[in-house]
Amino acid sequence: MIYDAIVAGLGGMGSSVAAHAAERGLRVVGLEQFDRAHDRGSSSGESRIIRKAYFEDPAYVPLLHHAYARWHALEAATGRAVYRQTGVLLAGMPHHASVQNARASAIAHAIPYEELDAPEIVRRYPHLAPRPGEIAIFERDAGLIVPEAAIAGYLEVAERSGAALHFSTPLRDWHATERGTIVVATAGGATFEARRLAVCMGPWFEALARAIGIPLVVERRVQHWFVPGGDGYGPAGLPTFLIDRDDQPSRMYGFPDLGTGLKAAFHSYGTATHADDLDRTVHDDDIAPVRAALAAWIPGAAGTYRRGKVCMYSLTPDEHFVLGLHPDAPNVVLAGGFSGHGFKFASAIGDIVTDLLIDGATRHPIGFLSPLRFRRDAEPTPAGT
Questions:
Q1: What angle do CA 93, 94, 95 make, to 5 degrees?
Q2: What are the backbone angles phi and psi of residue 53, rounded to the nearest 5°?
Q3: Looking at the whole model, is its pTM more than 0.90?
Q4: 79 closest CA partner among 13, 193, 160
Q5: Buried-most residue among 135, 183, 246, 383 (CB within 10 A)?
Q6: Is pLDDT of 173 > 70?
Q7: How many other CB atoms sit within 10 Å of the CB of residue 153?
Q8: Domain extents for the chain?
Q9: Fold of 88-140+217-315
Q10: Is 2-45+147-214+318-374 CATH 3.30.230.10?
């Protein structure tokens, strides 16, 4: 059988692609090297921030509007609670680029926000300990996505829409045929053929990325959960947060206690690795700096260490995504390099990749994410391709 599309990887991005493509009538086969809803890649950990006042680049905001709509559609289709509104508080000194850029992004795209000074932060959230002069950009309509629920929901939609999903099926290689199709071979000896291929392999995208001139780096990151020493650390008393301080190793992000502990981690603090070589053990020196930063920001929150989880960031040099057609194989769509801030977009990515699988183009503004931007001789890419 020749499928319309093979989806390589069924984590956060791949599950969304499989669901959107199957819903739109494509004959889809999805291949995942691990079990269903595994925790080996970058799409687990109970919570991922979603926000629109995007300090990374305002070019992402139109994609975020679409992502919110698609997350709500997934909830309606499955009855699963995927999105939770907690508000997001981004705090730092007025000169920090994160604060300035979040404000600018909100203004440019008419995103409702509030700017709070230190006394107002404490008045609203007595557990927080802002320093003199710190301010915050507060986005009330922001919150978190539950990755496990999101992936389970998309796999449900994909199968309900006719997709054939294969788990514990590692890919070995793929090649184009003379008749214009793609053949994928698995480690178990099976082969699958399709008109198009979507590569959504998370950190396992590294080898392919480097082979086509994308200098992707995989880095180890650790998420931590603490049991606070008191009450009021849940979503009624704390928002989801990002705190930018010069004496921290990196910007710290975190979530209120949702019943399993208060979660916190550094965004840019880790070591280079490869997906198959990842050290999955949480060490004392992983915990100590996060505990110290958390105790300074939310005194009492880091009372008892509950657990940690090692994950991976797939980082491009500019920390923007890789989303578009393979430079040398136009029937292969690449979706990778999400650089630690991609999961919130997974609902939109699935829809956009499906556009590319069907038409080779999309109406959504993804030109700044083109794989071609890493080539020295790259031509400017139209926004919708």
A1: 90
A2: -75, 80
A3: yes
A4: 160
A5: 135
A6: yes
A7: 24
A8: 2-45+147-214+318-374, 88-140+217-315
A9: D-Amino Acid Oxidase; Chain A, domain 2 (3.30.9)
A10: no
